Amino acid sequence: MLTPPGPERRSAPTPGPRPRPGPGPRPGPARIAVVGGGPGGLYAAALLRRQDPAREVTVWERNAPSDTFGFGVVLSDETLGGIRDADPVVYEALRRELVRWDDIDVVHRGHRTTSTGHGFAALGRRRLLEILHARCAELGVGLRFRTEAPPAAVLAAGHDLVVAADGVHSRTRETHAAHFRPRITSHRCRYIWLAVDFPFEAFRFEIAETEYGVMQFHAYPYSTDSSTVIVEMREEVWRAAGFHELDEAESVARCAKVFAEALGGRELRSNASAWTAFRTVANARWSYGNTVLIGDAAHTAHFSIGSGTKLAVEDAVALAAAVDAHPDLDEALSAYETERRPVVESTQRAAAASLRWFEELAGHVDRPPRRFAFDLLTRSRRVTHANLRLRDPAFTAAVEEDFGCPPGTPPMFTPFRLRGLTLRNRVVVSPMDLYVAEDGVPGDFHLVHLGSRALGGAGLVMTEMVCVSPEGRITPGCTGLWTDEQAAAWTRIADFVHTSAPGTALGVQLGHSGRKGSTRRMWEGIDQPLPAGNWPLVAASPLPYRPGVNQTPAALDRAGLTAVREQFAAAARRAARSGFDLLELHCAHGYLLSGFLSPLTNHRTDAYGGDLTARLRYPLEVFDAVREVWPADRPMTVRISATDWAEGGTSAADAVEIARAFAAHGADAIDVSTGQVVPDEEPAYGRSYQTPYADRIRNELGVPVIAVGAISSWDDVNSLLLAGRADLCALARPHLYDPHWTLHAAAEQEYRGPAAPWPAPYRAGSRRPPTGRRE
After folding, report:
1. Which helix (H) or strand (E) segment is 461 a member of?
2. Which of 274, 455, 478, 577 gives 473 a disulfide partner, CB atoms 3.0 to 4.6 angstroms apart?
3. 209 — pLDDT class (breaks 50, 70, 90)
4. Catalytic annotation on 591?
5. Which residue in the list 435, 591, 608, 693 is annotated as catalytic?
6. What's the whole-model pTM score?
7. Are the CB atoms for 721 and 403 separated by under 8 Å?
């Protein structure tokens, strides 16, 4: 039986500290303190007490039992399953309260697009707390409301286990910050939690394009008569609209006016609601001695993927299970973190992608309504084309039709035209340095490598960076196009591709290593100088890649600039005669031309250094020289590093201007990579993590883009294309793992059309072989 606690319900007086055991494994905790009475802390307390009724478990909560902030809480079926398994009593109480629905409505420029099959469950946050209060009281947990917890050190000394569930502003975490090592990042939008007294029929996203900028709200029902409403906008929009000057009541009224149509003219209500900038919390460690962090004290993930309460409750389940399975507390806390950290970090990556999407919302609103809705639904990269086809085949089919997919054709197998070249599909084998050339001449390894990927079905196969001079090599094993012997070897490869894999395009990437040259092959020591035979380096400025490790390059003077430019042009002429279908100019990853673009590597004071216009001057001169000699009907692309992942380096806004300049000079597409410019970079790795930069360039400039970086599945490719984030997708490691990746992607999607033809000798293998006999 669940009975709600009174306003000051407390346990019996807590006895003095239990003597600490001597050396050796500690027994399971007998006295447990929980700091914070939110859902995570309460559920952890209930589970730990339920495991052992002899335990003394006390929760300190500084607010009253009826105090809560926010309104509705969304719980996934996965989370509910964990609650059911851990404590069926709480699960049954929740199940009776849950509001369930399947649809998502996206309202944009007067169009409402509905996608179904998503499966949500929610209830009021206050009701959730009442259920957990009652369960704790029933189990004998001491609930100390309106009471500040003792200092962290006092709790740790007087208890066997301290569970810090004290939220995003955790005092426990800050007390032990030197050990937990928190990283807290504030973001660029302001948001406010509100409610309305009627239930939306779906999870509703609505976009308002106002005179001040783009605003959005998302809303969902949490009871039979109420819905949560979150209003969010960029900081500069918030200020331009004057929200920073309004009190709570005025802000609420203004939000209701902006979204009056969605609300049916109803008023919004607040609950000590304030405009907030979301903060992402991460910690290097989650435990210290007998103190452990859970929920927002340990980690936060943006509310747009509905993760805060879910993560806290799942933490509570995992912590209780670890304590139950490991009598030694150190082992228990280690097991808890080992289990939860990968799950949390995956959720944080998805939440970060969703957060960034909403921060850049203004760059998405020009998409057609269904494409916009698909883009929004797939923003975190957890919902994809494949699972949307399962959830809502009608909606997905409509998006595919808008994209131009012929019947039965996945998006990745639609053709794409660049200048005079039509690619039969959207898959690109990304440039991959092999480091096995002799004197710059590609050999049999290159023939087999590129030939097998061409036979594997990709629309475009790119060479590694082909160097324009001996001094422009990265390693002694790099290929080149500075001699006719090298050109003849490339001609042999191009002839094989065009003859044996007709319809596959072969592209060459031309580049110069700059300050990152004269190093060992990757597997011998990446970025390490040669033990002997190093050649002199040149760069935009005399800055070594790694001071004290790599040599200092000479800054190119006027004669050197001219000579290198002509080397690029000469290599392009040879590439044209060799039969390449496309040429890419490598202006990324800290190599020579990239070194001119980044303010971190270009410290020149002449016409080629200074502001971005000046830093662009030499790469554009090289581009123009190459474009002049490259056949007019063959496309040229440019690979750029859209961010240096380092303070003071190239920014996303700079990348747009760099792409704009190259497009104005005739680039047919921009290949959008990131980083590798400076050694102290801090990339934010994750699934298709570079795609937002490609997305911004494509949709701000209307320039075709190639997306690259941790795109690993055909589902990723289809999702990126349909969402309008890329025109082509380049994959490297998947093609190392499987040279026939594209053909296998076609087979797995049951596509047998002209965009992925199996070579005649391979047709018998066009179906997946059986893995075992079935009687």
Report:
1. strand 460-467
2. 478
3. very high
4. yes
5. 591
6. 0.89
7. yes
